[in-house]
């Protein structure tokens, strides 16, 4: 980290000099002849490092390659943009020249036909410029798409680092290069196709219906709790001679025609649903049981435990597949073959890492000595 970069974060960096209050010029034995080691009591020093510091060196090097590539693409895009603007100006000039050559003499032109040598020559120049513009636009579009892909990869890395489990750092994961036969580009496409199949399996797993028996038990518990909530208060009538008290429900509503915008009001109404559940509990349970039977699909149903286990297995298979895909892409790129990392590729696979508990920090010199007074010469 350069001297300029050291102060770009909130702290001074890990190599900041210790804070020392030295007074060695005073005679020995003087009360002011002392050194206060470490940060002063009550002083909070913010020391926030680079987010990439949680990655091992090989992973940081991969990120650096992507960052350099993004910088190159930005430079190339600007160059193509400038070339595009220059070509558009040239095209405009040629079009204006052709128009001037064909304009009637009374309007300040030369009244030449389209097959006149001057017009034909100018038209050839115009066609060449238009062809050059088409070429520049095609290259510019390709650079733009690649720049977006690289930018998405870098953003995904930033998000993954920020969302990693608390107290963890990256650790490199080494796997054997996957064997393949034939064209490596076709093998990569096959891995990506299998990845899409796993994502479809994951979607089906997450949206699989629940077993009817489990939901019926939950429904009965819900209705019984609601029935207890809707029980009228008859005890007060016996003990205090009061009318039967019906179950109440608190509600909130917005006021749109009031003086103050965003005003709300609160009130209470008889909880009719809870009262019906108390009055017709058995009938309500039977009717709801029939409704659940009508929409149940136990052949495709998964319990919560089965859902968690299957989802974990699919995610593990998907990560292993993406790690192999990344290795194949790196090999293909080293051979100059057309292969790119997918923008939605797992960051763990892209950087060949996994998150592990961070080791305890090494104690710094003078740590824990805040406020300790040392006398010089004693």
3D architecture notes:
The protein is mainly alpha-helical. Among the domains are: 55-163; 212-254 and 270-301, no CATH class. 52% of the residues lie in helices and 8% in strands. The strands form three sheets. A three-stranded antiparallel beta sheet has the order 1-2-7, with no helix packed on it. α1 runs antiparallel to α2. The longest helix is centred in the N-terminal third of the chain and has 46 residues, at 57-102. The protein is extended, with a radius of gyration of 37 Å.
Q: What share of residues is helical?
A: 40-55%
The helix/strand order is EEHHEHHHEEHHHHEE
Oligomer: single chain
For the terminal residues, how far apart are their CA atoms?
A: 40 Å
Largest sheet: 3 strands, antiparallel
Number of strands: 7
The value of Rg in angstroms is 37 Å
Kindly estimate the percentage of residues that lie in beta strands according to DSSP: 5-15%
Average pLDDT figure: 87
Q: Number of helix segments? A: 9
Shape: extended
- Strand-pairing-aware structural class: mainly alpha
Sequence of strands across the biggest β-sheet: 1-2-7
Spans of 5+ residues with little confidence (pLDDT < 50)?
1-47
């Amino acid at each position: 980290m350069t001297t300029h970069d050291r102060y770009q974060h909130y702290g001074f960096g890990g190599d900041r000099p210790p804070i020392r209050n030295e007074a060695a010029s005073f005679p020995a034995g003087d009360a002011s002849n002392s050194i206060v080691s470490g940060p002063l009591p009550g002083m909070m020093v913010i020391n926030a490092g680079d987010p990439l510091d949680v990655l091992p060196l090989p992973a940081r090097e991969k990120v650096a390659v992507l960052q350099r590539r993004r910088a190159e693409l930005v430079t190339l895009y600007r160059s193509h943009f400038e070339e595009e603007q220059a070509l558009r100006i040239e095209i405009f000039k040629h079009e204006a020249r052709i128009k001037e050559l064909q304009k009637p003499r009374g309007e300040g032109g030369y009244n030449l036909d389209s097959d006149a040598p001057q017009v034909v020559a100018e038209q050839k120049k115009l066609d060449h410029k238009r062809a050059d513009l088409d070429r520049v636009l095609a290259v510019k579009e390709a650079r733009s798409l690649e720049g977006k892909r690289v930018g998405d990869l870098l953003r995904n890395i930033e998000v993954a680092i920020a969302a990693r489990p608390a107290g963890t750092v990256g650790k490199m994961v080494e796997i054997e290069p996957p064997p393949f036969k034939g064209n490596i580009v076709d093998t990569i496409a096959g891995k990506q196709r299998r990845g899409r199949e796993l994502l479809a399996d994951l979607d089906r797993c997450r949206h699989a219906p629940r077993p009817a028996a489990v939901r019926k038990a939950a429904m009965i518990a819900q209705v019984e709790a609601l029935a207890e909530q809707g029980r009228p208060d008859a005890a007060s009538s016996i003990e205090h001679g009061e009318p039967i008290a019906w179950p109440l429900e608190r509600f909130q509503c917005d006021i749109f025609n009031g003086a103050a915008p965003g005003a709300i009001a609160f009130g209470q109404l008889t909880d009719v649903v809870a009262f019906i559940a108390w009055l017709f509990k058995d009938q309500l349970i039977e009717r709801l049981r029939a409704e659940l039977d009508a929409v149940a699909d136990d052949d495709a149903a998964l319990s919560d435990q089965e859902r968690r286990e299957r989802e974990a297995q699919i995610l593990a298979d998907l990560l292993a597949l993406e790690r192999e895909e990344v290795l194949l892409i790196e090999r293909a790129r080293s051979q100059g073959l057309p292969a790119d990392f997918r923008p939605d590729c797992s960051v763990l696979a892209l950087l060949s890492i996994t998150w592990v508990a961070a080791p305890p920090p090494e104690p710094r010199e003078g740590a824990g000595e805040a406020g300790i007074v040392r006398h010089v010469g004693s």
